[in-house]
Write the structure tokens for this entry.
Amino acid sequence: MKATFFCVGENAKKYPEIISKILVEGHGIGNHTYNHIKGWKTKDLDYVKNAIKASAYIKSNLFRPPYGRITRNQGALLKAKGFRIIMWNLLSCDYLASLDKEKSLSALVEGSKSGSIIVFHDSEKAAENLYWILPRYLEALHTRGLNWSAL
């Protein structure tokens, strides 16, 4: 597997061809809830139902909570349903309009080590930062002799 993309279920439903392309190209997918809900503002059972709803379009037991926040009980309920919760150790912050791209890139490169999980976003809000940071980040990894792989 090359990389794992955590997808919002409603987007996977709207764009099944993108999910197919991700899988055909040897990447993996993971569940990111059906509509990117906030765990700390959602009743536990409603949160789990939302993740299960996304599973209709995302065939994976990998789960990354939106915003990186869920309650302890939500985590336990998701695990009981067979989900494997995946967090990260580096966040690009590519979604921030005021992001200092150089500082973000530097922090990502300096913080990367074997086993690191890095979050980038595929939203319009993050696009400008993503397109600037990601190629430079991958080149820096290559220069340092690091390879990236997936879960």
